[in-house]
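INFO  loader      accepted 1 record
INFO  loader      residues=779
INFO  predictor   begin
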Amino acid sequence: MQFSPLALALIGLLLAAWVAGAAGLMIAAGAKARAAESSRKAARRMARMIDEAPAIPLLVRADGRIEGSERLAGWFGLAKLPQYLVDLGNGAGGKGLSAEQLAELQRLVARTQKTAAPFRMAITPPGSRRSLAVRGALADPQVSPGGAALLWIFDFSESESELARLRADAARAKSDFAALVGLIEAAPMPMWFRGPDARLKLVNQAYVAAVGADSAETAVENQVELIEPADGLSAAQVAAQAAGQKQAIERIVATTIAGQRRAMKVSDLPLGDEGVAGYAVDIEEMEELGRTLRAFQDAQRAMLDQLSVGVAQFGADRKLISANQPFRRAFTMRPGASEGTEFERFLREAREAGRTPEVRDFPAWRAERVEWFAQGEPVEEAWPLSDGTHLRIVTQPMPDGGLVLIAEDRTESLALSATRDTLLRTRTAIFDSLFEALAVFAPDGHMQLWNRRFAAAWGIEPDTLDGHPTADQLVAIIAPHLEKPKQAKAIGEIVRGATLDRKQTGGRVALADGRTLEIAGVPLPDGNGLLTVLDITDSQKAEDALRERNEALEAADELKTRFLANMSYEFRVPLTSISGFAELLEAGVAGELSAQGHEYVAAIIESVQRLTDQVENVLDLSQSEAGLLPLAPEKLELLPFATKVVRDREAAILSAGLSLDLRGGQTAKVEADPRQLGRALGQLLDNAIAATPPGGKILVELSRKADGVRIIVSDNGKGMTRDELRRALEGLRTGANGRPERRAGLGIPLARQLVEAHGGTLEIVSLAGEGTTATILLP
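INFO  predictor   done
INFO  writer      dumping tokens
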């Protein structure tokens, strides 16, 4: 087929138009695609912005279907947002809204869908601390046609908690204010409040009663003042001064209350710009007591001046209040000395005047006397002075913390008593002060003197000795009371040997009542004979008991020796086995352990190590007390040895935040067991580390002295009191039931035993709040 040129031209034009149309369609499609992609990006950005917003929208359609973010499901306590509003209620596990909350929400949503009325609602899902605010309105038709409701849900949990706290604070403040007002009204003292103009604004009932007003309103209205003007200033003017100076003003004034003049202590307290508060305390009784006390003190001083005994009174501040004339004479107080002299100064001046005993350490002696103020009981002392004067000092503590010092010169009375009572005291010292039964026989055989124990020792009546019987008569009286009456003859022989033969003899007799007496005849320088009788029944029984106890102790000692010999093996083998198995487990011999398993194994190894150390301490302490501690002494250079002990505890010292200063010469050497001596020094260092707070300092000083090697470990930690140090030194003790009783740690007792095993000594000095110093002295 052949086409004409015109047809071909038409066909070309048609194809060109088709290509142009196709190109236009493609360009238009690309533009629409780009616009659609831009819309999708904008939609995603908008959705992301809504997800990140503090409020989340929820669309409720007319048929009850809901549309919203899945984040809202978490706010309601649901795993997933349901499709219908009715499904927001409590589901499995009690999640979602309660039935009441859901019903109220449905009602408000239905009303908005019908009437387009907005609503607000606050809900808290059950079991949740989240507080949600709901704001609902009719959705725009462009968002959702057909009468849908758009809900905006806000999370205001933090605001709700803050509001609840503020409400609680307000309620508490209101309650406190009511209690304060009630307290002021019930106060027994007059109290008032003035405004910035110093006029009364508020008074309590005590104020009303004090001024005699009908009511608080009447007193405020009439400006009835409780305090009278003084020094030309009224109470309101004084209050204005307190407000102007911005500081409280206290004064003591006299005022009339109920027809009586009373002393009142008045205080005006400025309260910033609000006004001035005031109160008045009745101190009339206190003033009266003060006047009575001053009158009593004056009368007491006048009376004390009439006594022949010196009396001085010191106050709670240890200053002299008064001293009568005999006291001033006894201590030769200088004429210028008056009240107010401190007790320490009084003792110093008395020493300078020679009116105190001669002591080697006067400051220490004076410090002990100062402690009289702290004692609750009277103390009596005798002060022999260098000039032969004897003072009897009696201290009487006072309730106010003061002290009454009484000084009585007993020089004359003591001299007279010594002269008059020489014979009586000699006889009393010989006879009545001894617990032996004594009797003195003259050379003719008659009894001259005897003590009160003599008749009781033989079991005879004291009246039978009033006739001064002879030795033969005494033997006849005693014979019936002996287990073997024939032994009475031996008693007569002992008396004759002491009086006539002038020789000392003795023996033992048994009485019928089971007692055993030991008798002895002693010749006296004046020709008389002394017969001594001693009841040794208890000592005889004690001797038998001690003999049995000694046998039991020997058996126990042998048992203890065997026990200690086997205890090391019995204790150490199980601990070594446990430690070995734990190390095998940690090495993975029984299989790879979990991380928790490694922690358990590490805890087992650490506990075994601590238990091994404790067992070593107990065994060493027990062996040391039993004298069985093995020692392997060798020549040690002290400085390297101590340096190693300190280095072993470097981590503990650094972790405790302490500093340690090691001082010593290179030439100090000692013969000792390095293991046992190292344990002793380590125990002292461990105690110092434990007792020293962070930032403290520990000093280890090594020195060679003439008497041996000295090691000092000191710290500036909390220290110990005397009782704490005593308990620390006791360590393990045997209680009343015979069982070991734990008194304190084993560190210090073990260190002392180890040092003493080397022939050395350990001394510890500690002061509470200042630190502890331990000194090891080795030969």
